[in-house]
Write a structure and sequence with these properties.
The protein is an alpha/beta fold and 436 residues long. Helices cover 74% and strands 6% of the residues. It folds into three domains: 2-140, no CATH class; 168-315, Trna Endonuclease, Chain: A, domain 1 (3-Layer(aba) Sandwich); 347-428, no CATH class. Pfam families: RmuC (PF02646).
């Protein structure tokens, strides 16, 4: 590559020089020389290329030989490794097979032992469970027989109840007893009357008359009557159970008619103002019956508006009675308030009297204080006189503080000594303790 570049440079220089010489012969010589040089250069380059090609061929043959040798060596190495791996794999396979066989035999042996132990325990558990289950089954059979007997007894009792409730008077007595229990539980004692006659010109009596908590000489009463339309209610339940819409509608109409008739009777018989309040209560003994009545659209509102009768069940009656009981509590508090007001008035009068007594006592205390001072003065005087008596009889006795001469002998008159020793209140007034 370097030679080619050098030849090109020389050719360029020669051509430049030829362009500067105008002699044609010289130019021809130069061109001839240049051609000779070019041929030589080409021949030298061809020879060099041949040498290079021969060298490259030798290098290629050497590399091919080297590659063949390396390929053969690697093939032999791979074959040797494959034989070693095959031998190792065979040995490992044999060892693994032996290990698996031993593990299988050990697992089979342990499985047999475990199966035997499990079978033994399972047999014992099953036997124990069977005994327990058999005992339990016997107990359950006994309990079932007992329950069957109780069911039979209950069936007989239900039949008796049905026969009892088939009688209108018996049904009414049961509802009345239930209502009496509710009244006794909520209201205070003596808050209601039973079987009370509300009209003087009628012999009709209401089951319960609750006295209302108002300030009156004769408080008005609330009439409560219990009704239990069992026939219509049972027909309705049977129609609902049979999924018979026509029978259900007919039963509801019959129940509605019965309720309207009973409400009209209560309004006519038991709403007598001012003996009673302006409304009455129709009591239904079961919540199921009350729920079916409440499901009839507008029935309760119409009965309350047209007949002034409130329909209530066992769930609502205690709430109304508690309201009445709260009225009794409020009335008692009002009475207690009046009593307290009267007591406070009497206490005020007593306090005024006590104030007068305390004023008199204060005046007496003032007089007593003056009397006590006078008594102390007289006591001092008596003490000085007594000291004079204790002196020597040969010395003259000085005169007393009041200017009077002392007695000449200790045996002087008792009246004079008692007059000098007498306290002031003996002459001036009453004794300080209030006595004369």
């Amino acid at each position: 590559m370097f030679c080619a570049v050098a030849s090109c440079v020389m050719s360029f220089i020669i051509l430049r020089r030829m362009s500067q010489q105008p002699d044609p012969q010289a130019e021809g010589d130069v061109l001839a020389r240049l051609c000779i040089m070019m041929e030589r250069e080409t021949a030298a380059r061809v020879a060099e290329n041949e040498v290079q090609r021969a060298r490259m061929a030798e290098i290629e043959r050497a590399l091919s030989t080297r590659l063949d040798q390396r390929h053969q060596e690697m093939t032999e190495t791979f074959n040797r490794i494959a034989r070693m791996m095959g031998r190792d794999l065979s040995e490992m396979r044999v060892t693994q097979a032996e290990s698996l066989r031993e593990m299988a035999e050990e697992g089979r042996r342990q499985s047999d032992e475990l199966r035997a132990a499990v079978n033994e325990r399972l047999h014992q558990a099953v036997e124990k469970q069977m005994q327990t289950s058999f005992q339990r089954v016997l107990e359950q059979i006994g309990a079932m027989q007992k329950a069957m007997g109780e069911v039979s007894a209950m069936t007989a009792q239900v039949g008796d109840l049905k026969r009892l409730f088939s009688n209108v008077k018996t049904r009414g007595g049961w509802g009345e007893a239930q209502l009496r229990t509710i009244l006794d539980d909520v209201l205070p004692e003596g808050a209601y009357d039973t079987n009370r006659r509300l009209r003087d010109d009628s012999r009709e009596v209401v089951e319960f008359a609750v006295r209302m908590p108002v300030r009156a000489t004769v408080p008005p009463v609330l009439a409560i009557d219990s009704k239990f339309p069992t026939e219509a209610y049972e027909r309705l339940l049977q129609a609902v159970e049979d999924c018979n819409p026509d029978a259900e509608r007919a039963a509801r109409r019959a129940l509605e008619t019965t309720l309207r008739i009973e409400a009209r009777k209560i309004a006519t018989k038991y709403i007598v103002p001012p003996v009673t309040v302006e409304f009455a209560v129709l009591y239904l003994p079961t919540d199921g019956l009350y729920a079916e009545v409440a499901r009839i659209p507008g029935l309760l509102d119409e009965i309350g508006r047209a007949y002034r009768v409130i329909v209530m069940g066992p769930g609502l009656m205690p709430a109304m009675l508690r309201t009445i009981h709260l009225g009794y509590v409020t009335l008692a508090l009002e009475k207690r308030t009046d009593d307290i007001a009267r007591l406070l008035g009497a206490t005020r009068q007593e306090m005024l009297r006590m104030d007068g007594v305390l004023e008199k006592l204060a005046r007496n205390a003032s007089a007593m204080s003056s009397s006590i001072d006078e008594a102390r003065r007289r006591t001092s005087l008596v003490s000085r006189k007594l000291r004079d008596l204790d002196m020597d009889p040969q010395h003259p006795v000085p005169a007393g503080d009041d200017g009077t001469a002392p007695a000449a002998h200790p045996g002087m008159a008792n009246g004079a000594r008692q007059a000098d020793m007498m306290p002031t209140w003996a002459d001036d007034g009453p004794h300080p303790d209030g006595h004369g």
